[in-house]
Amino acid sequence: MTNGEFVDDKKIKDILTYIKSMKHSEQIRMMFLCSLNGLRSINFAYLQVKDCYTEQLKPKDVINLDSDKNKGKHKCSYFMNSQMKKELADYLKYLQNKWGENLNPETYLFTSQKLNKPYNRVSISRLFSSVYRKFSIKGASHLGRHLFVSKLVNSGVNICLVQKLANHKNISTTQRYFNYNEHMLANAVENARV
After folding, report:
1. What is the value of pTM for the model shown?
2. Distances (CA, A) of 2 to 58, 145, 146
3. What CATH number does the domain containing 49 carry?
4. Is residue 36 a part of any domain in this protein?
Protein backbone atom coordinates (compact mmCIF):
# COMPACT_ATOMS: atom_id res chain seq x y z
CA MET A 1 0.00 0.00 0.00
CA THR A 2 1.37 3.40 -0.86
CA ASN A 3 -0.23 6.79 -1.29
CA GLY A 4 -3.58 5.09 -0.70
CA GLU A 5 -3.23 2.57 -3.52
CA PHE A 6 -2.13 -1.03 -3.39
CA VAL A 7 0.93 -2.00 -5.43
CA ASP A 8 1.40 -5.77 -5.19
CA ASP A 9 4.25 -7.99 -6.34
CA LYS A 10 2.35 -9.01 -9.49
CA LYS A 11 2.06 -5.39 -10.59
CA ILE A 12 5.77 -4.85 -9.92
CA LYS A 13 6.58 -7.93 -12.04
CA ASP A 14 4.36 -6.54 -14.80
CA ILE A 15 6.27 -3.25 -14.65
CA LEU A 16 9.62 -5.05 -14.88
CA THR A 17 8.31 -7.01 -17.88
CA TYR A 18 7.16 -3.77 -19.53
CA ILE A 19 10.59 -2.22 -19.01
CA LYS A 20 12.16 -4.99 -21.14
CA SER A 21 10.47 -3.40 -24.18
CA MET A 22 12.05 0.01 -23.56
CA LYS A 23 15.19 1.51 -25.05
CA HIS A 24 18.10 1.14 -22.59
CA SER A 25 16.01 -1.45 -20.75
CA GLU A 26 18.98 -2.98 -18.90
CA GLN A 27 19.81 0.30 -17.15
CA ILE A 28 16.19 1.19 -16.43
CA ARG A 29 15.39 -2.27 -15.05
CA MET A 30 18.43 -2.23 -12.78
CA MET A 31 17.55 1.25 -11.50
CA PHE A 32 14.05 -0.01 -10.66
CA LEU A 33 15.52 -3.03 -8.87
CA CYS A 34 17.82 -0.76 -6.85
CA SER A 35 14.81 1.31 -5.85
CA LEU A 36 12.84 -1.81 -4.93
CA ASN A 37 15.79 -2.86 -2.74
CA GLY A 38 15.47 0.36 -0.73
CA LEU A 39 18.01 2.64 -2.39
CA ARG A 40 17.18 6.29 -2.94
CA SER A 41 17.81 7.76 -6.39
CA ILE A 42 20.73 9.75 -4.94
CA ASN A 43 22.26 6.40 -3.95
CA PHE A 44 21.89 4.55 -7.22
CA ALA A 45 22.32 7.49 -9.62
CA TYR A 46 25.99 7.68 -8.70
CA LEU A 47 26.78 3.99 -8.15
CA GLN A 48 30.12 2.92 -9.52
CA VAL A 49 31.52 -0.54 -10.20
CA LYS A 50 33.67 -0.29 -7.04
CA ASP A 51 30.52 0.26 -4.94
CA CYS A 52 28.72 -2.90 -6.08
CA TYR A 53 31.42 -5.38 -7.04
CA THR A 54 34.52 -6.78 -5.38
CA GLU A 55 37.94 -6.56 -7.07
CA GLN A 56 37.15 -10.01 -8.51
CA LEU A 57 33.93 -8.51 -9.97
CA LYS A 58 31.60 -10.50 -7.70
CA PRO A 59 28.50 -8.71 -6.39
CA LYS A 60 29.00 -7.40 -2.87
CA ASP A 61 26.80 -8.53 0.02
CA VAL A 62 26.57 -4.94 1.24
CA ILE A 63 26.81 -1.74 -0.76
CA ASN A 64 28.53 0.80 1.49
CA LEU A 65 28.26 4.37 0.30
CA ASP A 66 30.06 7.46 1.49
CA SER A 67 28.25 10.68 2.29
CA ASP A 68 28.69 12.03 -1.26
CA LYS A 69 26.26 9.33 -2.47
CA ASN A 70 23.67 9.68 0.28
CA LYS A 71 21.04 12.03 1.61
CA GLY A 72 22.01 14.10 4.63
CA LYS A 73 25.77 13.74 4.26
CA HIS A 74 25.92 10.46 6.19
CA LYS A 75 27.40 7.14 5.17
CA CYS A 76 24.91 4.37 4.46
CA SER A 77 24.82 0.64 3.84
CA TYR A 78 22.39 -1.38 1.74
CA PHE A 79 22.24 -5.15 2.13
CA MET A 80 21.80 -7.16 -1.05
CA ASN A 81 19.58 -10.24 -0.96
CA SER A 82 20.32 -13.29 -3.12
CA GLN A 83 18.00 -12.09 -5.90
CA MET A 84 19.68 -8.68 -6.03
CA LYS A 85 23.16 -10.25 -6.11
CA LYS A 86 22.06 -12.40 -9.07
CA GLU A 87 20.69 -9.30 -10.81
CA LEU A 88 23.97 -7.48 -10.19
CA ALA A 89 25.92 -10.42 -11.64
CA ASP A 90 23.72 -10.34 -14.76
CA TYR A 91 24.06 -6.56 -14.99
CA LEU A 92 27.85 -6.87 -14.90
CA LYS A 93 27.66 -8.80 -18.19
CA TYR A 94 25.76 -5.86 -19.69
CA LEU A 95 28.40 -3.42 -18.38
CA GLN A 96 31.26 -5.56 -19.72
CA ASN A 97 29.59 -5.70 -23.13
CA LYS A 98 28.94 -1.94 -23.10
CA TRP A 99 32.34 -0.78 -21.86
CA GLY A 100 34.67 -3.62 -22.90
CA GLU A 101 38.25 -2.93 -21.80
CA ASN A 102 37.24 0.53 -20.56
CA LEU A 103 35.24 -0.95 -17.66
CA ASN A 104 37.01 -0.06 -14.43
CA PRO A 105 36.19 0.52 -10.73
CA GLU A 106 35.29 4.17 -11.44
CA THR A 107 32.75 3.33 -14.17
CA TYR A 108 29.22 4.45 -13.32
CA LEU A 109 26.53 1.77 -13.43
CA PHE A 110 23.98 4.11 -14.98
CA THR A 111 25.03 6.68 -17.56
CA SER A 112 23.30 9.11 -19.84
CA GLN A 113 24.14 9.36 -23.53
CA LYS A 114 27.20 11.38 -22.54
CA LEU A 115 30.16 9.07 -21.99
CA ASN A 116 30.38 7.89 -18.37
CA LYS A 117 28.39 10.75 -16.86
CA PRO A 118 26.01 9.70 -14.09
CA TYR A 119 22.33 9.61 -14.93
CA ASN A 120 20.63 12.84 -13.83
CA ARG A 121 18.39 12.35 -10.76
CA VAL A 122 15.65 14.56 -12.22
CA SER A 123 15.68 12.43 -15.38
CA ILE A 124 15.43 9.29 -13.23
CA SER A 125 12.39 10.69 -11.44
CA ARG A 126 10.71 11.59 -14.75
CA LEU A 127 11.51 8.16 -16.18
CA PHE A 128 10.07 6.34 -13.16
CA SER A 129 6.96 8.54 -13.20
CA SER A 130 6.30 7.80 -16.86
CA VAL A 131 6.64 4.04 -16.32
CA TYR A 132 4.36 4.08 -13.27
CA ARG A 133 1.78 6.18 -15.16
CA LYS A 134 1.49 3.36 -17.72
CA PHE A 135 0.16 1.25 -14.82
CA SER A 136 -2.04 4.02 -13.34
CA ILE A 137 0.26 4.37 -10.34
CA LYS A 138 1.16 7.75 -8.89
CA GLY A 139 4.83 7.61 -8.04
CA ALA A 140 8.39 8.44 -8.99
CA SER A 141 11.84 7.14 -8.07
CA HIS A 142 11.06 7.02 -4.33
CA LEU A 143 8.08 4.68 -4.73
CA GLY A 144 10.20 1.51 -4.92
CA ARG A 145 11.96 2.47 -1.69
CA HIS A 146 8.58 3.14 -0.10
CA LEU A 147 7.37 -0.30 -1.19
CA PHE A 148 10.54 -1.93 0.19
CA VAL A 149 10.23 -0.31 3.62
CA SER A 150 6.44 -0.83 3.77
CA LYS A 151 6.82 -4.51 2.90
CA LEU A 152 9.36 -5.03 5.69
CA VAL A 153 7.35 -3.12 8.29
CA ASN A 154 4.05 -4.74 7.36
CA SER A 155 5.62 -8.22 7.30
CA GLY A 156 6.44 -7.93 10.97
CA VAL A 157 10.19 -7.29 10.67
CA ASN A 158 11.41 -5.59 13.84
CA ILE A 159 11.07 -1.83 13.36
CA CYS A 160 14.65 -1.26 14.58
CA LEU A 161 15.98 -3.58 11.87
CA VAL A 162 13.87 -1.83 9.24
CA GLN A 163 15.22 1.51 10.42
CA LYS A 164 18.79 0.26 9.88
CA LEU A 165 17.97 -1.32 6.51
CA ALA A 166 16.33 1.90 5.32
CA ASN A 167 19.14 4.07 6.70
CA HIS A 168 16.63 6.23 8.56
CA LYS A 169 18.19 8.44 11.20
CA ASN A 170 15.00 8.50 13.29
CA ILE A 171 12.68 5.57 13.93
CA SER A 172 9.68 7.91 13.62
CA THR A 173 10.45 8.14 9.89
CA THR A 174 10.31 4.35 9.61
CA GLN A 175 7.04 4.19 11.55
CA ARG A 176 5.31 6.31 8.89
CA TYR A 177 5.52 3.35 6.51
CA PHE A 178 3.31 1.12 8.64
CA ASN A 179 -0.10 0.43 7.12
CA TYR A 180 -2.52 -2.04 8.68
CA ASN A 181 -5.56 -3.88 7.45
CA GLU A 182 -8.21 -6.13 9.02
CA HIS A 183 -6.30 -9.31 8.14
CA MET A 184 -3.23 -8.06 10.02
CA LEU A 185 -5.35 -7.07 13.02
CA ALA A 186 -7.06 -10.48 13.10
CA ASN A 187 -3.69 -12.27 12.91
CA ALA A 188 -2.29 -10.13 15.72
CA VAL A 189 -5.23 -11.02 17.98
CA GLU A 190 -4.94 -14.70 17.04
CA ASN A 191 -1.25 -14.67 17.93
CA ALA A 192 -2.05 -13.21 21.36
CA ARG A 193 -3.86 -16.37 22.50
CA VAL A 194 -2.81 -17.97 25.77
Report:
1. 0.86
2. 34, 11, 7
3. 1.10.443.10
4. yes
